[in-house]
């Protein structure tokens, strides 16, 4: 039997044997299933949302976390493990794979997802307004977002014609955006070169491939792997002296040049509020899938200077956050 962990607050970790958990079934247990690694700030936002909904871990709620550490093949067994543990609710974080694993593992336990993929296209929900079934959640998959990131790169370097797009090949949602990305760039006479990375060890080869193809600017797909390796990606961008735009707000605070993203912590909090409503008796089928109301554009001027770039005044005027 695999060891399972109970995270007490955000401080310590204690093993929670099956017998002990069986005695705790008087309080609901939320199972967390994530594709990457646990993020302390995101989990703090998650616990705060649950607290606002009236659920406090260690008092009237237990939380059991399973994180795949970017080893996606572990997700189906982790989801099955949560089902065997008879959790009250499963909340998934990262890319679309945890939600798909949870959905495949149970048709009865409620599921709340937080991801950047289109749940309708993936067949997870019937529609955004009326999800149906046992699953609903939060998605920032809006078709225009990738086009906007590419447009911002074009505004930064108007004469650039060859753009790179870094994608996780197992993330079907990201792969599905390749053709729209090419269509967008084609409107100003450009092309998109795609490189793939399944793990952080693939970044060197991907950036070397971009350099070989004379890529002038790069967009990073919104996969949990990339979100958990922002510092490493920023170092690679600096090493190859190439402008990069990310879909993660934290990227510019980790040395990234630009980002265009929704407020991740707010979306995590929204997922926890949905979790609280379901724990109180509401059904996922009746809770519309939530999309972010706005996005934030951020620029790191220090990184721009290191790359020898001058940010055009019109682009700077668009920025919601400027790091100097």
Describe what this molecule looks like in 3D.
The chain is an alpha/beta fold and 324 residues long. The chain folds into 2 domains: 5-140 and 264-286, 3-Layer(aba) Sandwich (Rossmann fold), CATH 3.40.50.2300; 143-261 and 295-323, Rossmann fold. Helix content is 36%, strand content 20%. It contains 13 helices and 14 strands. The strands form 3 sheets. It has a 7-stranded mixed β-sheet with strand order 9-8-10-11-12-13-14, sandwiched between helices. It has a 5-stranded parallel β-sheet with strand order 4-3-5-6-7, sandwiched between helices. A two-stranded antiparallel sheet has the order 1-2. 45% of the residues are buried. Residues 1-24 have low confidence and may be disordered.
Describe the SSE topology.
Blueprint: E1 5-8, E2 12-15, H1 18-23, E3 29-34, H2 40-52, E4 62-67, H3 75-84, E5 89-93, H4 97-105, E6 111-115, E7 135-139, H5 143-156, E8 162-167, H6 172-175, H7 178-186, E9 191-196, H8 203-212, E10 217-220, H9 224-227, H10 230-239, E11 244-246, E12 258-261, H11 264-279, E13 296-300, H12 301-306, H13 313-318, E14 321-323
Parallel strand pairs: 3-4, 3-5, 5-6, 6-7, 8-9, 8-10, 10-11, 11-12, 13-14
Antiparallel strand pairs: 1-2, 12-13
